[in-house]
Design brief:
single chain; mainly alpha
Length: 104
């Protein structure tokens, strides 16, 4: 998900590299410099280079899954995550949107 978000300005032709986008924490994280929005950083120099490499890689299949799930409003995750964490929430949502208040 991080790569998808950080690559959006590049895919939209706003910048050529994710860290060039002014409104992204990517800029501070990769450069290891505070930028007024991000103070401090969580990556050392070696990890910043690995993060930069991670961001420029493409994962077409994952991008497609994210787009499909975003357009349908469905959460994205493993089957275990969806059945254990998300499905109970969706069932609760269906109860409250179907007109039931839970009070008899």
């Amino acid at each position: 998900m991080t790569r998808y978000i950080e690559q959006n300005p590049v895919k939209s032709a706003l910048v050529t590299r994710p860290e060039d986008y002014l409104w992204s924490s990517c800029r501070a994280n990769i450069r290891g410099q505070e930028d007024g929005l991000v103070t401090g950083w969580w990556l050392d120099e070696k990890d910043r280079e690995a993060y930069r490499t991670f961001l420029i890689q493409t994962d077409t299949l994952m991008d497609q899954k994210i787009r499909v799930n975003t357009s349908t409003g469905r959460p994205l995750g493993s089957e275990d995550f969806l059945s254990f964490r998300v499905e109970p929430l969706l069932q609760d949502q269906e109860l409250t949107t179907s007109g039931s208040t839970g009070m008899n």
